[in-house]
């Protein structure tokens, strides 16, 4: 039915669906952004792979053929294009690399292809170029990563300032409505929503553009560490429960703070497993560079196979990888298939770096490369990334430590002023009613004074409490979602960290929302006038 409807619309609109070109452009734009985020690390993976297999004395066509099959690298499709130019169109590798480089939008990859083409034209041996290029790529990757970290330092502070500014503007609009009670209230509130959303998008987009990419989980289909599998199982029930519960509470007219609190509490299990897995991956990656170097050194120095070399590894110094290493050794010792054993090892670790670099090590060994030399290349590249990740972790920890109290402060200021305005509105309304009741029994002169006083305090009488309650809930929701996304972007890692930050931010928002009225009633008392409240 939908296919026939789409075809009818396509026929009537000249063969295209409405906004089809716009959708294609948007998809291409976001795809290019996603590729550029991963390009730096994938270039490092690719060059490490090429430098590792060259130790097996493979030929140039084999280098490009094997690299083109590594579909887990974004860069492999560009290597595939080089292969197409060479094998189908009979170009030489130097010319093919130059042609592909001219069509690549990413400057880092384009520069690498250009250098490779020039080296081939100059007669530089592939092994000499690749080892030198690996050092160059590491330096460029380090430079870009550190530049991104410095940018995030500045934009992290700028994001906090922007969100505080958005909160202050929303507060000013709320106070202005309490004072002036504009006729076109919906237009004023919609302007505030758009302003808050625009500031949030600008701050988040700028940080996302600045922060370097660092995929922590391998995200292989149907695989993952224990925590990742638990998250996958639980989210099938928890996420629908959150959605259904939120809808029911909203329809039932429950307090917005209660809804926020329930969402936060329901996401807590997913958040806990998310933080645990993220921490485990970081620690396992730190140990893996030592493990793979030791494994390669033992294999090369003693001439042992992988199974026997594992028995020589001192797992006491590899606390975070000791269990997966022991499990892999036991399975290999039983004669199980080596591919299945190492796939299980990667599965249990759940790490993207371990998945990539272990496959590089194993493929190079299969091709006949030197284990010790391969291990040195692989461990050095991984160590480069883990050291840079430590810098990012230090930055993200500082940002999150600042973000959480600032989130509470923003929500608290908003709610305190809102409750104070409500208290003032109720008190002024009561005073106005008392004056109106007393004016009937007074003389005209006294009534004139009462009328003047009534005009002076009338500014808080028409405060639209119901509409402003909805306004507060929507603005707090925008701020909460924005801070969740900002925390995840700076922290990096897998998408399950959205659950982790969501549980924290929604819980804090709900608690402040619920607790604030009691605190305001306790601390903020409207003075009485002649015994009249």
Automatic annotation (TrEMBL):
Transmembrane residue ranges: 159-181, 193-213, 234-252, 258-276, 399-422, 468-486, 498-520
Keyword terms = Membrane, Transmembrane, Transmembrane helix
What domain of life does the native source organism fall in? Archaea
Q: Has keyword Membrane?
A: yes
Q: Could you confirm whether the keyword Transmembrane appears in this record?
A: yes
Instruction: Spell out the protein name for this chain.
Output: Archaellar assembly protein FlaJ
Gene source species: Methanogenium marinum
């Amino acid at each position: 039915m939908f296919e026939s409807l789409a075809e009818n619309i396509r026929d009537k609109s000249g063969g295209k669906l409405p906004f089809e070109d716009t959708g294609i452009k948007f998809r291409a734009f976001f795809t290019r952004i996603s590729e550029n985020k991963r390009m730096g690390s994938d270039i490092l993976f690719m060059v490490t792979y090429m430098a590792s297999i060259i130790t097996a004395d493979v030929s140039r066509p084999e280098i490009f053929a094997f690299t083109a099959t590594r579909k887990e690298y974004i860069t492999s499709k560009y290597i595939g294009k080089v292969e197409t130019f060479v094998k189908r169109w009979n170009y030489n590798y130097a010319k093919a690399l130059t042609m592909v480089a001219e069509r690549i939008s990413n400057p880092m990859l384009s520069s690498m292809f250009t250098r490779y083409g020039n080296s081939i034209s100059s007669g530089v041996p592939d092994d000499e170029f690749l080892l030198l290029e690996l050092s160059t790529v590491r330096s460029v990757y380090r430079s870009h990563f550190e530049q991104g970290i410095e940018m995030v330092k500045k934009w992290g502070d700028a994001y906090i300032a922007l969100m505080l500014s958005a909160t202050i503007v929303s507060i000013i609009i709320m106070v202005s409505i309490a004072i002036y009670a504009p006729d076109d209230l919906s237009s004023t509130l919609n302007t505030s929503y758009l302003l808050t959303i625009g500031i949030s998008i600008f701050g988040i987009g700028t940080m996302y553009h600045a922060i370097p990419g660092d995929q922590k989980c391998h995200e292989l289909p149907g695989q993952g560490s224990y925590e990742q599998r638990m998250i996958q199982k639980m989210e099938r029930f928890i996420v629908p429960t959150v959605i259904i519960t939120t809808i029911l509470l909203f329809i039932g007219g429950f307090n917005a703070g209660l809804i926020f609190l329930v969402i936060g509490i329901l996401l807590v299990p997913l958040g806990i497993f998310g933080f645990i897995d993220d921490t485990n991956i970081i620690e396992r990656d730190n140990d893996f560079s030592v493990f793979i170097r030791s494994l390669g050194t033992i294999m090369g120095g003693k001439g042992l196979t992988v199974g026997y070399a594992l028995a020589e590894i001192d797992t006491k110094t590899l606390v975070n990888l000791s269990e997966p290493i022991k499990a892999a050794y036991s399975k290999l010792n039983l004669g199980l298939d080596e591919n299945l054993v190492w796939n299980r090892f990667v599965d249990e670790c759940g790490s993207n770096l371990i998945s990539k670099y272990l496959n590089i090590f194993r493929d190079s060994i299969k091709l006949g490369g030197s284990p010790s030399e391969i291990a040195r290349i692989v461990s050095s590249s991984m160590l480069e990334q883990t050291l840079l990740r430590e810098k990012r972790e230090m930055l993200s920890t500082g940002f999150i430590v600042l973000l959480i109290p600032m989130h509470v402060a923003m929500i608290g200021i908003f709610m305190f002023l809102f409750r104070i305005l409500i208290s003032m509105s109720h008190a002024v309304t009561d005073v106005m009613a008392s004056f109106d009741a007393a004016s009937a029994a007074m003389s005209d002169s006294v009534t004139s004074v009462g009328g003047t006083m009534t005009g002076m305090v009338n500014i808080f009488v028409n405060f639209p409490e119901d509409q402003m309650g909805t306004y507060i809930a929507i603005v707090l929701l925008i701020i909460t979602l924005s801070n969740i996304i900002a925390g995840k972007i700076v922290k990096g890692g897998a998408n399950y960290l959205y659950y982790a930050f969501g549980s924290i931010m929604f819980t804090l928002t709900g608690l402040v929302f619920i607790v604030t009225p009691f605190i305001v009633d306790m601390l903020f008392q409207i003075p009485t006038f002649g015994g009249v409240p």
